[in-house]
């Protein structure tokens, strides 16, 4: 009784050996051929002799092929990014004072120049009046300084006349040397008096300029008490509360501009050369909203961590429906390329794991072409890497390998 299972195991083992190891010889024997003349065909075979092709020509495998021609398509660069306000500014105080205006609440629309925070004047107005008084005083000294200069010039002229007369009389022996020396000293003193008068006039002018600067500084300090919106936008935060003590750098309010918004993404270095400033682009937000705009900025410097380049797309947002920080799928138009549109089921892998398709050449022999996916659509995929015209096997491609003769049946792309 134990002999039967043993014989059964031997028969099963022999059958599996013939079906797996000696499959080609067994198939040749079934067709009435000499097993030693069977031909092995695989994706790794680079060539098949003409004799082998002739031998198997009568046993071609039937496949269905699609006659495909390449077409020019737009090849968009697909990114993931987020929306960003066109401008966002944290408006801060430049001086110390107490807020005396009622606060504006977040979400309020403001125009450029609208009041955000008004600060207490304190003693700044008195400082302004003091600076103006000093300016008036400095200006009142100008006539006096000019009069002193005129007086010094008149004294110089008198001294020069006396000195000239003394020199002439001294030549005739009518004036002593002491008298001549005295007139010369008077002339030099008059020259020094002019220099002193000119210095006094310059000092008066400098005093006027200093007083003007003091008035301007006092006016600027008063202007800093009124904090206004730098541009049209929305308040992203409440303005400073009434009675709050503001220091230089204290936040008054945050203003953002959303009527024009940016969609920001990062392009890998392998795709950056396909994008040009001014190219049309579209984006689909996480909520399903679709927008269109233009590329307005493309970074020239890569991020040192991710090795990607920042790209910005400007989008109109007049109705303020797009918010700052929303996730977006971005598609940027790029120069087109030629590609074939094929059924997704026609894609296959060769023994090296390359993605591609099997085609029928003019001799009705199977050939394998690696392809690159260009675009994925609901009714098919666009691939590049094929000739301008190709008969792509769409049914039976997984039952043949490169170099196998086939008997194709053709169908059109619409079928």
From TrEMBL:
Record-annotated CusB-like beta-barrel domain positions: 267-334
Coiled coil residues, start to end: 128-169
One Pfam short name: Beta-barrel_RND_2
Origin superkingdom: Bacteria
Keywords: Coiled coil
Family: Belongs to the membrane fusion protein (MFP) (TC 8.A.1) family.
Protein name: Efflux RND transporter periplasmic adaptor subunit
């Amino acid at each position: 009784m134990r002999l039967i299972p043993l014989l059964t195991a031997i028969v099963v083992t022999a059958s599996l050996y013939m079906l797996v190891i000696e499959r080609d010889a067994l198939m040749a024997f079934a067709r009435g051929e000499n097993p030693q003349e069977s031909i092995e065909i695989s994706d790794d075979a680079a060539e098949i002799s003409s004799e082998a092709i002739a031998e198997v020509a009568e046993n071609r495998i039937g496949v269905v092929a699609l006659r495909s021609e390449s077409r020019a398509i737009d090849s968009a660069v697909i990114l993931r990014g987020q929306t960003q306000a066109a401008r966002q500014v944290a408006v801060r105080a430049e001086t110390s004072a107490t807020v005396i205006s009622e606060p504006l609440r977040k979400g309020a629309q403001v125009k450029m120049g609208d009041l955000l925070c008004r600060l207490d004047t304190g003693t700044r107005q008195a400082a302004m009046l003091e600076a103006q008084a000093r300016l008036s005083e400095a200006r009142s000294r100008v006539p006096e300084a000019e009069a002193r200069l005129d007086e010094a010039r008149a004294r110089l002229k008198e001294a020069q006349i006396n000195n000239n007369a003394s020199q002439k009389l001294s030549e005739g022996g009518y004036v002593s040397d002491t008298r001549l020396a005295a007139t010369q000293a008077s002339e030099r003193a008059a020259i020094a008096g002019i220099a002193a008068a000119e210095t006094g006039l310059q000092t008066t002018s400098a005093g006027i300029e200093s007083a003007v600067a003091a008035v301007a500084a006092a006016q600027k300090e008063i202007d800093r008490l009124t904090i206004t919106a730098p541009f049209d936008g929305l308040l992203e935060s409440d303005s400073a509360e009434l009675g709050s003590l503001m220091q230089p750098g204290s936040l008054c309010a945050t203003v953002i501009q959303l009527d024009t918004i940016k969609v920001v993404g990062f392009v890998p270095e392998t795709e950056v050369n396909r994008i040009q400033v001014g190219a049309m682009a579209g984006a689909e937000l996480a909520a399903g909203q679709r927008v269109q705009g233009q590329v307005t900025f493309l970074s020239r410097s890569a991020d040192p961590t991710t090795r990607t380049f920042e790209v910005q797309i400007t989008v109109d947002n007049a109705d303020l429906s797009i918010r700052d920080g929303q996730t977006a799928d971005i598609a940027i138009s790029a120069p087109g390329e030629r590609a074939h549109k094929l059924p997704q089921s026609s894609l296959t892998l060769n023994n090296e794991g390359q993605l591609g398709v099997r085609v029928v050449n003019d001799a009705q022999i199977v050939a394998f072409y690696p392809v690159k996916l260009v675009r994925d659509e609901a009714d098919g995929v666009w691939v590049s890497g094929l000739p301008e015209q190709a008969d792509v096997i769409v049914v039976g491609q997984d039952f043949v390998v490169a170099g196998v003769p086939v008997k194709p049946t053709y169908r059109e792309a619409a079928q």
